[in-house]
Amino acid sequence: PGESWEELNQGLPLTTDTTFSPTPNLWNGDYDVVRLLYADRTVPGVLWVGLEDVGLYYSSDHGSTWEPRNEGLPEEVTVWDIDIVPDVPDHLYLGTSDGIYSSSHHGMSSERTNEHNSTSHLITINENNSQQIYVYGALGLERSLEGVLTWEQV
Fold it and tell me: Are residues 65 and 10 in contact, defined by beta-carbon separation less than 8 angstroms?
């Protein structure tokens, strides 16, 4: 394992500006900066990539091809993290540069949650209680005990 590698970027957007990144030559300098790589625990072969200022991309074939999943996300958003609701695998939450977004249909479209609109770098959902969500971002560590309805500092 790990003795040979291949590029898996068919469908990922090309960048035209590499000056915004401290690592401008990521993937030979042709592709935007990856901020998230997530392997879906519930569906083999499903991968998610969050790109700086570009949004979310999805692959159902182990990364051979990619498609954007940005409906409902603002332009030039960075997706920092993703977590899938354990007991509802089609429902996911995104931690972005514009706050937390929710999708109830496997990322086909997303909408911003009303109560949390600051940059969210890390997001995790309690496996035993999907109403309990933790976020780390611009406001420090926060949690919701009511499925993103209200937030409190931890």
Answer: yes
**pTM greater than 0.70 (yes/no):** yes
C-beta separation of 60 from 53 below 8 A: no
**Tens-of-pLDDT digits for all 154 residues of the chain?**
678 877 777 777 765 554 444 444 444 445 568 888 899 888 889 999 998 888 999 999 998 888 999 999 999 899 999 999 988 888 999 999 998 999 988 889 999 886 666 888 899 999 999 999 999 988 889 999 988 888 888 9
Nearest CA to 130 among 90, 84, 95?
84
119, burial (CB in 10 Å: exposed 0-12, middle 13-18, buried 19+): middle
